[in-house]
Structures are given as C-alpha cells and as structure tokens.
Amino acid sequence: MPGYSNNFNDELRARLSIVDVVGRRVPLTKRGKDFWGCCPFHNEKTPSFKVNEEMGRFYCFGCGEKGDIISFTMKTQNMQYPDAIRELANMAGLKVPEYKPKDAATVEREQNYFDIMENAAKLYADRLDSPDGEFALSYIRGRGFSDADIKKYRIGFAPNGNTIAAKFGNVKLANLIATGLVRESKTPGGAPYDFFRNKLMFPIFNPAGQIVAFSGRSLDGTEPKYINSAETEFFKKRLTVFGLNFARNEIYKANRSIVVEGAIDAIKMQINGFGETVAPLGTALSEEHLQVLNKSNRNITFCFDGDKAGQKAAARAMSVAMPLLRPESDVRFAFVIGGSDPDDILKQKDGREQMKRIVDSAMSLERFLWDIACKNHLVSTPRGQAMAEKFFMGEVEKIQDFSLKSRFKQFFFDMRRENWKFTRRASILPVPEIGALEQKTLSEIAANFPETVEKHSEFLLKIGADLGHEGRESGTGISAADAERFIVSLKLKHYLEILQKEKKELTARMLDPLNLQGQADSTRMAELDGEIRKTTENIQKISEI
C-alpha cells in the first residue's frame, strides 16, 4: 500500500499512546504490563482485547484482530488509510505531509544515512585506541568507565582535521552533509570539513539501536563542553531519549524510568546499577520525550541537580507531565544533594548507596507541585495564598482524567487545611461533612454525569465528597436536570448551615457584657438574617421544581 513516509508514521506512533487512542473507544483496565478491554470488533462480555503500550500494538484473542494506532483508527471509524493518518495527525498536532509513495531514491538515502553513521562510529572507536586518542582514552577511564563500558556505549574519539571527509571520499558529498558529520566550506572552492574535531564521541541511538547522531565532549576546555549533531531527517532532539535503547528492558524490570539532565549522567547511572536511566538530549524536556517514555512505563522519577537550574528544569518537567498523567502514572521528583550532579555522587566511596537513597526518597508530583506553589508565593498572607491556589489549580486543570484531577484537588484542600493559617472568621466556620445518603447520590451522579460533577468539583471536594466513580453503577434513572438541582440544593443547604453556625456564634458574643463590637455585630446579625431568609427561600424554590 502506498503511503506516507515511515518517518511520519513513526512520529505519529511516538507522539500518540495506543492506550490513549484505543481508550477513546474502549474502556481499558491495566493488568500487569498490558491493558485489557472488550473487543470493539465482535460482541463479548469477558475482555479478551489486549493493548501493549510499549509495543504500540493491540490483539484480540477472541476474533484475532490485531494492529497499531493506524489500523485501529481505520477499522473502528471505517476510514481509508489517508483519512486515518489525517485523524491521528490532528490528535498529535502534526501537519500531514504530502501523500506520496516512498520511492527508491528515498529508500537508498535512508540506507546510506545509517551506513555512514555506523561506519563513522567504527572509525571514531578505532581512533580512540590509536596514539591520537591516548589523552581521550585516559580521560574517559579516569571518569570511571571500564573498557567494557567503552565498548558497550561505543565511545570514540574525533581527532583534529577532516577525518570523516577524508575517509568517506567515495561517498556522495550530499549524503555526508545530510548526516551532519561533514559541512560544506563557506569559501568558494573550499573543501568540506568535519563538524566534530578533538572531541570525545558518544553515539546517539534510536530505540531500535541504530546510530542517528553523535554527542561530542570538548577535551581542551573550550566551550560549549558538549555539542550534538544538528537535527537531520532521522534525528529530532524533541523525540530522542538518550540511552533508551539500553534502558528499555531495565525500565520494565524496575517498573520505572529515571530521567536525569544529561547524557553522561545517564550513562554513569546505567553502569552503576540504575539501568533504567535516560536523559533528554540537547534540549529541555518535551511532551514528546514523555510520550516516548510512557510507552515503556508511566512511572517516571525525575532526578535533577539540586541547584536553581535543576529546580527550574524539574518545574518545567512537572508542567509538561500534567496533561499526560493517568491514574496508573506515578511521577516523582528527586534532587541531588552532596554534589553537583549524579556523576559527583557516584564518584564517592558509597556513591551508589547515596544515589539509591536519593532516588528512592523522591517526592510525589502532587507534593512537588504543592512545594512549588508555596515557595513561589508568600503564603503567610491571604493574597499569597490566593495566588498559590490559582497556580496549583491551573496546573491541575491540565490533567485530562476526571477522577485523577479530583484527587489532586482534594490533596490541595487537605494540605491547605493542615498548613495554612486562616482568618478568625474562617476558623470558626468549619465546612459540614457530607452524609452517607448524599454521598450515594453523588456517586450515581458522578457515574452518569461527570461533567456536572466537574462543574461543582471545588465545592464537592471541600465537603469531602468521593468524586471517583470507578465501579459505580450507571444508568440509574436520574436526569441531568435532577443532578444539577441536587448539587445546587446541596450547596444551598451547606451554605445555610454555615450561616446558622455563624449566627449562633454571633449571638453568644453579643450576650457577652465585655463585647466591644456591639454596633458591628448588630449590623452583621441583620445581614445574616437576610441571607438565611434568602437561602431558605431558594431551597424551597428548588424543591418545588
């Protein structure tokens, strides 16, 4: 079948989780590393439809249907291939390229690219073992890399001069330039030259283990310390997770991934017992990076440096992660202490044990979000509290899962109650608890009309309502209008209780002969009587509808 380029289809698969695509049409439940649901292609009551997020594939043990996000979209929405691609591209926020078959020249260009990168890696490795690379080899061994590590990660050395341009003289110049290893001279008639010179070389692999780029480290003190290949047709920094090709199996075993700030830190973590460690490459953490990681495991621990830059990177990672959270996600944040980065910690005598304590003590995402809100705003003042709440709730609104969003809001209200001081008036007006009958009705409403519960979620969470509706029975006969009236009535009744509580407190104070606020209290009493009367009337009106 003629189609879009493999590169575009691969980018769709990288950006979109098959669990999210299938989950729009099939309710899924996680069991082990897979998700299960009732097959959309034949009638069944017992789930036999399996979705594997890491592989990006589905399979039904009942009818034998199988495929990926493209075939699922085609089959469930009765679409032709081009229409399915456009549908998925819209979901991923991508512009659809021109529809045309892959020609022989494109196939040859792809093959040439990977052949050149592979042969360049071999050449760099040979140079590391040559007299030219003696200093580089001594340096990397001094950083704690064994010869086995050097071989595994295919570390090499790019000497001064035009090694690649000279050794690949029989390769078309256009193909060499396309890899980013060689650049054309800006001088008319000048010879092409190598991009990497006098650099310790680290190959960058795609998840399939093919070399797509290189990262070079300066050895003579020049800045920048690290330079990466320019982006090419096969190397996109926002989609490349460094070390993932080595970490995939370890991520499965550890049931998490660890994300550090740099490539070298990722390698050092891997060779010191944290094989599930990866890093973004040459750019800030992106949503695409997390989408790639989520396919392996949705449990992610960010382990960043403890300085301001590390804190800033962690805050960005938190914000990027929010829209991708699911109930099965466990996102945590750890910060390196006792050193500037993981490499510094791991160099120490008990470095591995220290790093394990740092990673294992990582705080939850919601706690980290709370800490950011409190650190960035003066929460000892009402205005600061309001701004912190606005920030916290603004981030929470990015969460797509209704039940998870509700849990985050409940966490905020619990932390606020435990940690923030309120005015005297607020302290004498506790929010009434919700009754069992009210909770049962709200559970039915949550199962049938989640949008109605979402509309009033802040109030419901404040009164301690359980807004999760997993396992609740739907279709109980209650109407949308009844649901709205019930919650509004509940609001009014609880507001009435607060008013009556304040009136009782005020009455007791007015009877105190030492009370010096007589006029102000009398004014407030008149206001309360008016509010109580108005609220009572509104409750009566709703009950008569």
Features:
51% helix; single chain; elongated; 545 residues; six-stranded mixed beta sheet; alpha+beta; 24 helices; 17 strands; five-stranded antiparallel beta sheet
Give a description of the structure:
The chain is an alpha+beta fold. Helices cover 51% and strands 12% of the residues. The chain contains 24 helices and 17 strands. The strands form four sheets. A six-stranded mixed beta sheet has the order 12-14-13-15-16-17, with helices on both faces. Strands 1-2-3-4-5 form a five-stranded antiparallel beta sheet. The longest helix is centred in the C-terminal third of the chain and has 31 residues, at 480-510. 32% of the residues are buried.
Helix content: 40-55%
* Overall pLDDT: 84
Low-confidence runs? 423-431
Kindly report how far apart the N and C termini lie: 61 Å
Molecular shape:
elongated
Q: Radius of gyration from the CA trace?
A: 30 Å
Task: Count up the helices.
Answer: 24
Residue fraction in strands: 5-15%
> What does the main sheet amount to?
6 strands, mixed
Sheet/helix structural class? alpha+beta
